[in-house]
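A reminder from the course coordinator: this example appears on the midterm review sheet, so study it carefully.

Given structure:
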């Protein structure tokens, strides 16, 4: 069975892992209220609650 002759250095391991970081959420403005929200999600604004042009969440009174 093949076994590595030498240990990989921390620098080499870090170079391999350099692309494993988390990316930020992609936010887009809500077409109704303009508040930034993740795509394909109901608008979290308490006075909006729209998704795909329809009212999904009743307005808080």
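Designed residues:
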């Amino acid at each position: 069975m093949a076994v590595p002759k030498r240990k990989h250095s921390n620098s080499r391991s870090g170079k391999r892992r350099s692309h494993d970081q988390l990316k930020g959420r992609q936010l887009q403005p809500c077409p109704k209220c303009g508040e930034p929200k993740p795509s394909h999600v109901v608008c979290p604004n308490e006075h909006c609650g729209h998704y795909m042009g329809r009212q999904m969440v009743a307005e808080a009174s």
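The longest helix spans residues 10-16. Residues 25-61 form one domain.
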